[in-house]
Design brief:
There is one protein chain. The protein has a single domain, classed as NADP-dependent oxidoreductase domain (TIM Barrel), CATH 3.20.20.100. It is 39% helix and 15% strand. It is built from 10 helices and 10 strands. An 8-stranded parallel β-sheet has the order 3-4-5-6-7-8-9-10. A hairpin with a 5-residue loop joins strand 1 and strand 2.
């Protein structure tokens, strides 16, 4: 496993395991399989409705808590200072934990303009030692800049949709400048066209790897944190086997040129669902 060091000195596995769209009971088995494979970072959220399943897998494992890196998120309807503090306690109870390693705002929902107050509540949780690091999801540059201007604790992570068809180069440059790690959700474009793209498949053949492994490696070598999701044991293991090869500079550049600004999810500036 490779690790990154967040801007507050906390070490985080660069490759994690996502559980979006995994049913609560199914999450127990999936996360347990991930632990057995070697994953130590698990990414969940209140709105995924599987925090209890993740917590049960943690409880059933014999892994020391300090070896795990658990991320969860405050949902849009729970934003605001007091609501966020309450939502955090509820997430902690469902997970069965004393603290989480990373707590994130799920979306900025700019129409409601609560994300600064939400982030200030997260700063309190951070300063109180209830979370090891705080950050955001799906924040554009203007949302991030406002937090940098109005809040005290710099976000450690910005988790956004990112894959070869949506490389997020401008956002990556901004995040790197401000020592914020970009974390990729939907890193394989949910198993879409990108996996079978001739460029990806050609590089995969050259390395005797799968298209998914090549794309995950591309993320890692772009200094992004990446959280692929699967409930299939063979794919959970396959996605982890990415530390025994490297892409050349030319291969990285070829994949970089696949960017076409194509999203699977909504634009952050337009996502105002609560």
């Amino acid at each position: 496993m490779d690790f990154v060091t967040l801007n507050n000195g906390l070490k985080m596995p660069q490759l994690g395991f996502g559980v979006w769209q995994v049913e609560d009971q199914e999450a127990v088995k999936a996360v347990s399989t991930a632990f057995e494979t070697g994953y130590r970072s698990i990414d969940t959220a209140m709105i995924y409705k599987n925090e209890r399943g993740v917590g049960e897998a943690i409880k059933q494992s014999s892994l020391p808590r300090e070896e795990l890196f658990i991320t969860t998120k405050v949902w849009n309807a729970d934003q605001g200072y007091d609501n966020t503090l309450k939502a955090f306690e509820e997430s902690l109870e469902r997970l069965g934990l004393d603290y989480v390693d990373l707590y994130l705002i799920h979306w900025p929902t700019p129409e409601f303009d609560n994300y600064v107050d939400t982030y200030r509540a997260m700063e309190k949780l951070y300063n109180d030692g209830r979370v090891k690091a705080i950050g955001v999801c799906n924040f554009d540059i203007d949302h991030l800049q406002r937090l940098l201007d109005e809040c005290d604790v710099k976000p450690a992570v910005n988790q956004v949709e990112c894959h070869p068809f949506l490389a997020q180069n401008e956002l990556k440059t901004f995040c790197k400048k401000h020592d914020i790690f970009l974390e990729a959700w939907s890193p394989l474009m949910q198993g879409g066209e990108v996996l079978n793209h001739p460029v990806v498949q050609g590089i995969a053949r050259d390395h005797q790897k799968t298209g998914a492994q090549v794309i995950i490696r591309w993320h890692l070598q772009n200094d992004s944190i990446v959280i692929p999701k699967s409930v299939t044991p063979s794919r959970i293991e396959e996605n982890f086997q990415v530390f025994d090869f490297e892409l050349s500079d030319d291969e990285m550049e070829i994949i970089n040129h696949l960017d076409r600004g194509e999203r699977k999810g909504p634009k952050p500036s337009e996502m105002n669902v609560r």
